[in-house]
Amino acid sequence: MITALDGLTVDLVPHTQSVAREAWTGKDSARPLSPQGLSQAGSLAAVMLGSIDAICSSPAKTVCADG
After folding, report:
1. Is 36 in contact with 18 (CB distance < 8 Å)?
2. From residue 66, how far is each of 32, 42, 52, 63 by CA, in Å?
3. pLDDT tens for residues 22-50?
4. Is the pTM higher than 0.90?
């Protein structure tokens, strides 16, 4: 039993939709989100607003927006 982590909640969230691989010629790690993926990310942020203490992600390209 790990007592130091009692009460810790970890939400693992898969990435949202990216631009199609066939439509991207750069490195896969730099492939941006599609318009639908940006919408999905915004919806997820709205649901989780106020309940997040930390975010950990891969080094792949991310797009952040305030608001």
Report:
1. no
2. 18, 10, 15, 10
3. 999 998 888 888 999 999 988 988 888 88
4. no
